[in-house]
Specification:
By secondary structure, the chain is an alpha+beta fold. It has two domains: 61 residues; 160 residues, Aminopeptidase (3-Layer(aba) Sandwich), CATH 3.40.630. Helix content is 31%, strand content 29%. It has a ten-stranded mixed β-sheet with strand order 1-2-3-10-4-9-8-7-6-5, with helices on both faces. It is globular, with a radius of gyration of 20 Å. The C terminus is likely disordered.
């Protein structure tokens, strides 16, 4: 009989951050399952464990708190049903901001935007991950997205300067798509560029036969939630991100492999 593992070892995160990292499979646990998870972590010498919890299960939340899981984020998933979405009016900014697919030559500018765009994410709220490692994570993420990890990345260009980007993923064997990363240059925020990028991506998804688009943001990032709501998204689910450290991460010093 096949044994179902309670956790998944995360090779990419492990190599990137320099800690042995895994993720709990599933969103709930009782004491028996939690003990099995901790035993698995001990056998596999896991140093950091991610857990995306269902906040509607009181036992899961209580056990996570009792066993020193650290709450680092509230994960908000929103969805937009393209069949019922009304076309948006074009604002004045659309006349000066040009949307186009990314090019390899854009990557340095996109990495620079990514470096300052995700301070609300869970990694920045875990003191065991140095800020420079978190910055590098999102720089790497947008570069990989341009190099094929995403199905397409659109950039916003104004006065020959890149001011934002959005990555789009087609979820295979479904009629769904997902927005991966949305980033706007710090000097160009609060002007509607993010809304233009989202609107442009939704048109692209519709052209590819997508019926529903999902996007994930943070509970603390109210500005992002309001942006997506203006573009026709509604909240689909709310979950809790926990990190549990099995080692004293404060003694490691700075990340060495970036």
């Amino acid at each position: 009989m096949t044994t179902i593992e309670p956790c998944q070892f995360l090779l990419w995160d492990t190599e990137f951050f320099g800690y042995r990292i895994a993720r709990v499979i599933g969103h709930r646990f009782n004491l028996q399952r939690l003990n099995a998870i901790l035993k698995w972590c001990d056998i596999h010498k896991i140093e950091c464990l991610y857990f995306l919890a269902d906040p509607g299960d009181a036992e899961t939340v209580r056990l996570a708190e009792d066993y020193d899981f650290r709450l680092v984020d509230i994960r908000v998933t929103l969805e937009c049903n393209l069949k019922y979405r009304q076309a948006k009016l074009i604002n004045d900014l659309a006349e000066t901001v040009h949307m186009r697919p990314s090019r390899p030559s854009d990557i340095p500018a996109l990495r620079a935007i990514a470096r300052t765009a995700y301070g609300d994410s869970r990694f920045y709220f875990d003191p065991c991950f140095p800020k420079e490692a978190c910055d590098a994570l999102y720089e790497t993420w947008i570069q990989r997205s341009c190099e094929g990890y995403a199905d397409t990345v659109f950039v916003a260009e104004e006065n020959r300067q890149l001011v934002g980007y959005i990555s789009c993923h087609l979820l295979r064997d479904t009629a769904e798509g997902q927005i991966g990363l949305l980033g706007v240059d710090a000097q160009a925020r609060n002007r509607g560029i993010g809304e233009l990028l989202v609107d442009h991506s939704l048109k692209w998804f519709a052209e590819h036969g997508i019926e529903k688009v999902i996007v994930v943001t943070q509970g603390r990032n109210v500005a992002a939630q309001r942006l997506y709501q203006r573009c026709g998204f509604l909240t689909q689910s709310v979950q809790l991100w926990y990190h549990k450290w099995m080692v004293d991460c404060t003694s490691r010093g700075n990340h060495e492999s970036i």
